[in-house]
Amino acid sequence: MGVFLLFQIFFTIATISFSLHFFSTLIFSCWVLPIRAYKKIKKNGFTGPIPSFPMGNITEMKNSMNINVSSSLNVVSHDIHSTVFPYFARWQKSYGKLFIYWLGTEPFLYVAEPEFLKNMSAGVLGKSWGKPKVFKHDREPMFGSGLVMVEGDEWVRHRHVITPAFSPCNLKAMASLMVEPTTKMLDQWATLISSGYPEIDVEREITTTAGEIIARTSFGLSYQNGNKVFEKLRAMQITLFNSNRYVGVPFSKWMCPKKNLEAKRLGKEIDQLLLSIIDARKKSLDIGTSPQKDLLGLLMEGGLVDGRSGKSLTARELVDECKTFFFGGHETTALALTWTLLLLATYPDWQNQLRDEIKQVIGDGEIDFTKLADLKKMGWVMKEVLRLYSPAPNAQRQAREDIKVDDLVIPNGTNIWIDVVAMHHDPTLWGDDVNEFKPERFKDDPLYGGCKHKMGFLPFGFGGRMCVGKNLTTMEYKVIVTLMLTRFSFSLSSNYRHSPSILLSLRPRYGLPLLVKPL
Ligand code: HEM
């Protein structure tokens, strides 16, 4: 009886201390820490919309989305900032281009001011900026500890190993891997058209093809389990796409447990398959077979070391980089191509100009990849598309130390949300024709398109963390657009409803049905 009583007392004390510890940790991390961070940022004079606990400003953001969902669907207006981000457009009017807003219990410094961006990067080491920890849970299944996720010295090491793999010489060797999947897609379009279906939802088709291309250029599809990895990566993407959680709200990461478990399961299977590919490649390297010219082959070329040598990545790290290339690389490229087709269908004159250029530079035969750089007008069109419909509509950072910007101090831990769409549509940076499709603005100023500030055009991000796949994606874009325009012409279907929306990236909410005609 005495022992039982003692046990009961012990159990009660343990439960009370656990509960006290749990609730004090909860209050500290969900209340005290965020308020402390908020006060520090506010000291610099920033204001912003009033948050509520525990949602921050999320409810207001969601509500304003509902209001805008049905605005002028049939008119192709490129003035998209106030429809895509109605809350930011509204808050900008009240608080300017720098203000604080809250995702759950996480304060974010909103930035749509290029001069501030320039100053916050000037003289600061790239590794002083990390990525907001609050997004890590969602991104972990896709990127693991790949380049997008790593920080500090680890990021420097990964970036040094990976950058050379994307050299122009290596990329040219990968160009041929892009032709076959694109031709397969175009052959399917030809079959559909000849069976009496001239209207094709090109967004879906292009996304699948871009996925296949990035899988081929990252880890190869012909090799053993490559195809299985590709299928599972697609399945994981669909799973994650369907889970919609409230970022920053306490415990929200435990919402959608079924989807989380499914993503975890797929993640484990993908890792195993990729490890088996790496293992098989390592064995063939050991017997003197020459390495494959895809990204994985190039990363392994330096010699696979399991320890943390300065020059190579471990097998585990290679797995994460392959996933990173897939998730970071294919949807962005597919959306750049999708928006391009919308704009070329809307502006047939530009469609014809590009076709003429292709004839002049490439001719009618097979693509000579060394000539892609001479497709100048196509380059302007790509940049203008990325300006008006940036597939990466924002960039984020989190300070890893106190960072001085002019007279202000950005405290360690501050989340930064850079509104790229706002800057790309800002008339004070681009002039009154900001919302017009004018690729020629890149003719005299190929890098910045006449933007008044060098940090005002950021389709691939900025600073040391700028997109590593920029040249790969430019080459892929030119190969695919060339192949498409030499076989077909495109016009807008009356079923198209113009509703650019944020669904992970900036995409056409109702797809992109186009009327496709063989030439
Ligand atoms: C139109 C296509 C693409 C767009 C618009 C795009 C955009 C971006 C943006 C905005 C960033 C973040 C930069 C920053 O935070 O400052 C980024 C980073 C990155 N992108 Fe891309 N990207 C594209 C294609 C690709 C491709 C094809 C690959 C790979 C094969 C790729 C791999 C990466 C990686 C690994 C990073 C992380 C770089 C780092 O943190 O050091 N991207 N990209």
TrEMBL record:
PROSITE patterns: CYTOCHROME_P450 (PS00086). Keywords: Heme, Iron, Membrane, Metal-binding, Monooxygenase, Oxidoreductase, Transmembrane, Transmembrane helix. Coiled coil: none annotated. GO terms for cellular component: membrane. Its cofactor is heme. The keyword S-adenosyl-L-methionine does not apply. Pfam families: p450. The chain crosses the membrane at residues 6-33. Heme binds at C467. It is a single-pass membrane protein. It is found in: Membrane. InterPro entries: Cyt_P450, Cyt_P450_CS, Cyt_P450_E_grp-I, Cyt_P450_sf, Cytochrome_P450_Monooxygen. It comes from the Eukaryota. GO terms for molecular function: heme binding; iron ion binding; monooxygenase activity; oxidoreductase activity, acting on paired donors, with incorporation or reduction of molecular oxygen. The keyword Transmembrane helix applies. Belongs to the cytochrome P450 family. This is Cytochrome P450. It comes from Gossypium raimondii (Peruvian cotton). The lineage of its organism: Eukaryota, Viridiplantae, Streptophyta, Embryophyta, Tracheophyta.
